[in-house]
Write the structure tokens for this entry.
Amino acid sequence: LKRRASQLQYEQGFGSYQILEYSEGIDSQTIGARRVAEGVVRLVRPQQADSFLLN
């Protein structure tokens, strides 16, 4: 999740990101179980990123 959030931040020109929600689990619906993760990420514009650091 952090890798994808960082990629989106860079590609879209945001100053930073915040992970708001995160969960992990096992998907056993396919042949063989696999780990899955999902989350909600907030992308923060550069000016807002500076003010978040001050708080």
